[in-house]
Structures are given as structure tokens and as C-alpha cells.
Amino acid sequence: MFPNGNVGKCDNEKPEDAKGVLTESGDILWKTEYRFIQYHQLSSGSECVECKYLPFCMGPCPRRREEMYVQHKHIVCQHKDKEEAMEKVIVDYCEKNSDFYNI
């Protein structure tokens, strides 16, 4: 939710590009609900579906997914060097949670 009352599924989008608006009754009125159906899922045509790092990465944010779908007609990996990027994510996670896991 953005300060102007607009609602989006991704905080990377600009408030004025948000796909919904919060009504006075507290409901969300989606301007283009059908577009979320296309972009929110990682379909079988997505590179992410078969990726071993999907549980860590979860694919691109909804805004990037939309851009990729428009450009490539499917979702592509958002990382130039997937192995390096995911190693950093895993190491960072372990370092931040080492006390919890008694590491």
C-alpha cells in the first residue's frame, strides 16, 4: 500500500502505477485484476520452475515478472550469475540466523 491509497503487489512499482486503490470501506478495488493472474505465477515456461534455488530466490518481483513477460513471453532468471548470487543469499541468511540455529 502506498501513502496515496494506491495498492500494488510490488513495492518496486511507482505509486501512480499501482494496479488497485483502497476504498473508503477498506476494500481494494483492482483496476486490472486480470493482469495479476498472468504475472503472479511462475508458469511451466519460466526458467525459475526448474531452478534448485527457487525456495531462496522466489523469482523476480511482480513488476519485473510483468516486464519479462511482456519482453520474453515468459519469466527469465533475474541473476547474471545465479550460483554466485544464491551463495551470497545463503551465506547472508546463515550469518543473520546463526544465533537462532546455534551455529
Q: What structural category arises from helix and sheet content?
A: mainly alpha
In order across it, which strands form the biggest sheet?
1-2-3
Radius of gyration: 17 Å
In helices, the fraction of residues equals 25-40%
Strand and helix order: EEEHHHH
Number of helical regions = 4
Give the rounded overall mean pLDDT. 80
Features:
103 residues; mainly alpha; three-stranded antiparallel β-sheet; 4 helices; 8% strand
Structure in a nutshell:
The chain is mainly α. It has helices spanning 33-39, 54-57, 62-72, 82-96, and strands at 6-7, 20-22, 28-30. The model has no long low-confidence stretch (mean pLDDT 80).
Written description of the protein model:
This protein is mainly α and 103 residues long. Helices cover 36% and strands 8% of the residues. It contains four helices and three strands, in the order βββαααα. It has helices at 33-39, 54-57, 62-72, 82-96; strands at residues 6-7, 20-22, 28-30. Strands 1-2-3 form a three-stranded antiparallel sheet, with no helix packed on it. A hairpin with a 5-residue loop joins strand 2 and strand 3 (28-30). The N and C termini lie far apart (37 Å). The mean pLDDT is 80.
